[in-house]
From TrEMBL:
Keyword DNA repair among UniProt keywords: no
Record GO terms (molecular function): tRNA (adenine(22)-N1)-methyltransferase activity
Pfam families, sorted: Methyltransf_18 (PF12847)
Lineage per the UniProt record: Bacteria, Bacillati, Bacillota, Tissierellia, Tissierellales
Name by which UniProt lists this protein: tRNA (Adenine22-N1)-methyltransferase
Transmembrane segments: none
GO BP, one annotated term: methylation
Keywords of the record: Methyltransferase, Transferase
Signal peptide interval: none
């Protein structure tokens, strides 16, 4: 199994000999890779979609890995019992959905040691949830695939504190490690914000004016982060 750069970066964060739950596994590539490369002892691949799960069941059967990869149909952590897994992967979903999955089945979520989360959007809201709910963000990764950036968060239960508001959106871990993609990632956010500002210029409502001011403030903060990256 050859993984894409995004999935490989996720798999590289999985602890050796782990028992993993891959929520929303879809194609089942992560479970297969983790077992074939002897990273995990067992993986439970789950999905809310019957169609996705049937695909995985066939795929796992074809590889003869049914004894090591369990497949379950269900919503988030409802199909995982407390203490059944030590490592959780939730990748390729929105940050708010990831947050809701963690929050909905607290007994299971509280029994997990390692959390590998890859939000497609709303990474800021996900970091806010983690930091306000006794998680410590240990490591982060940034991957670029086909001109899109993917943030990957590795967290454990614990405490952490962010010095600046902007660090909920731009990871201080990536900043302090001077991640090679970080500058262009922040620049892409500036470009996107400027594009929205241009669109707002023709609209004369209180809401658009508020958003205009907010985006200009955000651009200043992004520019300060770029100065930090370059220092
Ligand atoms: C875009 S795919 C991501 C697949 C894979 N995790 C990846 O990162 O490449 C999202 C998958 O999550 C599943 N999904 C969405 N909400 C879910 C939920 N609440 N519980 C379990 N699976 C869910 C979808 O059915 C879909 O297969």
């Amino acid at each position: 199994m050859k993984l894409s750069d995004r999935l490989l970066a996720i798999a590289n964060l999985v602890p050796k000999n782990s028992i993993v739950g891959d929520i929303g596994t879809d194609h089942g590539h992560i479970p297969t890779y983790l077992i074939e490369n002897k990273i995990s002892k067992k993986v439970i691949g789950t999905d809310i979609s019957k169609g996705s799960l049937e695909k995985i069941i066939e795929y796992v059967k074809g590889l003869g890995l049914e004894d090591k990869i369990d497949t379950r149909l269900g919503d988030g952590l409802e199909v995982i019992k407390p203490y059944e897994i030590d490592t959780l992967i939730i990748a390729g979903m929105g940050g708010l959905l990831i947050r809701d999955i963690l929050e909905k089945h607290k007994e299971t979520s509280d029994s997990i040691i390692d959390f590998i989360l890859q939000p497609m959007v709303a990474s800021k809201e996900l970091r806010e949830y983690l930091i306000n709910n006794n998680f410590e963000i240990i490591k982060e990764e940034l991957v670029k695939e086909e001109n899109k950036y993917y943030e990957i968060i590795y967290a454990k239960k614990g405490k952490c504190f962010l010095e600046k508001e902007i660090y909920y959106e731009i990871s201080p871990i990536l900043l302090h490690s001077k991640h090679p993609l970080l500058k262009e990632f922040v620049e892409s956010k500036i470009i996107a914000s400027k594009k929205i500002i241009k669109e707002l210029e023709g609209i004369n409502t209180a809401k658009s004016k508020e958003r205009y001011v907010e985006l200009n403030r955000l651009i200043k903060e992004y520019e300060e982060v770029i100065v930090e990256i370059e220092s």
